[in-house]
Amino acid sequence: MPDVFISYARSTAKQAQQVAGVLRGLGYEVWMDDQIPAHRVFSEVLEERLRAAKAVLVIWSPDATRSDYVRSEASRARAAGKLVQVTVEKTPLPMPFDQFECANLVGWRGEAASPGWRKVLAAVGELVGVAQAPIRVPPADAAAAAAEPLLAVLAFDNLSGDPEMAYFSDGVSEEILQTVARGADIKVIGRASSFQFRGAGKAAANVAAQLNATHVLDGSVRRSGSKVRIAANLIECERQTTLWSDRFDRELSDVFALQDEIAAAVAGALKATFAPTANIIPIDPAVYDAFLRAKDFSAGMSPTERSRRLAEVVAVAPLFAPGWANKAYWLSAEARFGVGERTYEDLRSEAIVAARTALQLDSRLGAAHVALSRLEPFAAFRARRQHLESALTDTPNDPLCLEEMCQFLSEIGRVRDALLYASKAFDLDPLFPRVASKRCYLLSYAGGEYEEVQALYDGFRLRWPEFVDFTVFPVNLAAVAGDWVRFERLAKLAEDKGFYSTPVMRLSAAFNQALRDRNPAFIGLVREALRQQAPVQLTTLCAAGALGLKEEAFAAIDGASFEHLFRQGPITSLTTGGSTPAIVFDAKGNSALINDARFVGLCGKLGLCHYWIETEQWPDCAATVPYDFKAECRRLAGAAA
Questions:
Q1: How many domains does the chain fold into?
Q2: Taken in order 188, 194, 195, 197, is the CA torsion positive or negative?
Q3: Residue 574 covered by a domain
C-alpha cells in the first residue's frame, strides 16, 4: 500500500508526476490515479488507496479548488490527520483548507534546496518516516536475472539560444531515437511518450515511473551555423547512475555519422548489438534543416505540405534514405485518405517510387513498408500483410509498424491478435492516447468483460479528459450493453464538452438514443439508407442489425457490390461511415449479424473468405458462432468457383 497518495486536478498532471517522481526517487511508495488497474472500478480503488495511505499530498490549483474529487480527498485526509498541502499555481485555498500550512511550489523545477520542497519533505517524513532509497540485493546470477532494457530517448534540450530552434533539437533527438531503435537490439519507447518529458520532468525516477523505462538517454543540442554540439548521457534508472556520457563537436554535414556513433555507444553500454546505417552520407546543413522542419510535429502541417517539403529534400539529396521513406509515408497518407488536390493515381505512383528507393538505400525503414501496405487495395490482404511483416522483421519494436499491423489484423477478424499488437504498441508508447484508444476498443471488439473495458476507459479519461474517444466510445459501449445509468452520465459529459459537434458524432448520438427508445423515425432513416446507399456503408449494416433490422441488412448485402474494395482508391471509398472496417467483427455491437450464417456472405463479398481458406488464418468469430463458420466459407467459395 502507498506511503503517499497524490490528489490533483488534471491540468496539473505534469507537476503531480514531477512530485511523484522525486518522492519515488527518495524511496517512498507513491500512488496516483494513473495506476488504477484495468480490471477495477476506479472509485473503489481511489477509496481503498486513500484510506491506506499514510500521507495525502494535495496539489492545489484553480482547477483543483473547483474539483469535487480533490476537495473530497482533501477533506478525508484532513479528518484523518494526514493532509499535506502544496500549491503550484497562485490561487486562494478553499475553506477550511486556508487555515492549514501550505507549501509554495509555484515554479518549482525539482530543486532539493527549495524552501517549499523542504517543507513538503518534513511533513511527509513526519507522517511516513524518513525514507531511504530501497536497497536491492542482486541475485547470484545477476546477468541472467536482469530485465530486458527498455530505453527512453528524451527530447534533448535546445541550447542554441533561440526558442525557435526547438524543432532542430527535437528533430535531432528523434533521429537519434530512430537510429537506436533501427540499428540496436534494444526496445525503445516511442517519441509520442518520451518527448513529453521536459525540464524537471526529465528526472530518471519520474521517467521510469511513468514509462517503465530501465534507461534514459538525455542530452542537449547547440547549433551555431553549420556546426553542432551534442552532449548525451545514458542513465540507468534504478540506481540513477550514468553509464555513458560524451560531448561531440561536429560539422552538421556529418550528423548522420554522429547519430550512428551515439547509437553504437548506447548499444555498447547496454551490451547490445548494433548494425550501422547502411549508407552514411554527408548532407548539406540546409537540406538537413529542411528535413527536420518537414517532420516537425508541432508545425501542424498537412500531409500534402510535408510530402512537398520532403520531395524538395530528396531532390537535392537523392541518397538520403530517411527522406525517401518519410516522403513515401506522407504521400501514402494523402492517397489513402483522399486529401489534397492530386489524383490518387499520381500520388500512389510517386509514393511507390519513393518507398522502393528508400528500401534500396536502407531496408530497415519501417515507414516505407507501411507506405507500400497502405497503397494496396483494401481487399489485397496477402500483399498488405507481407509488407507489414517485412516492416516488423526489420523494425520489430516500431510503434508505427505495430499499430499498422494491429489495424490490419482487426480488419480481417483476428481481433485478439490485433489486441496483442495494440498492447505491445501501448507498452512502447504508453502516453500516446491514440494507441491507448485502440487498445480499449479492440478489447471490447474481442468480447472483453464489459466492466473491465469501461474501467480502462475511466482510467484513460482521467488522464486525457479532452481526448474524444475516451468519452464517446464508452457512451457507445454503454448503449450496446443497455447500461443506461452510465450512458446518461457519459452522454451528458460528451455533450457538455462539445464532442457531438460534428455530423458523424451527432449521428452516433442519435443511434445510441435509438437503441434505447427504438425511435421509429431514426429506424426509418436506417431502413432508407439500406435501400439508397451505393455502396452500402458497413456502419449502416451494423446499425441495422443492432436496431432489429437484420433481415433488411442481409437483403442489402445480397444486392450490394463491394468491387471497389478490390481496386486502387482512397479509403474514403470503403464507405465505412467514419469507422474502421473492423466494426463488422465487433463481438457485441454486431452480434446480431455475426451469429447468423448469412454473415459469411458479407465476408465473402469483402474478399475475406478466400483469404481465410488460403492462409488458414481464421477470424476469432469462427470459434464462437453457433454454426460451422469454416464450412460456410468453403461452401460459399466453392459455389463462386
A1: 3
A2: negative
A3: yes
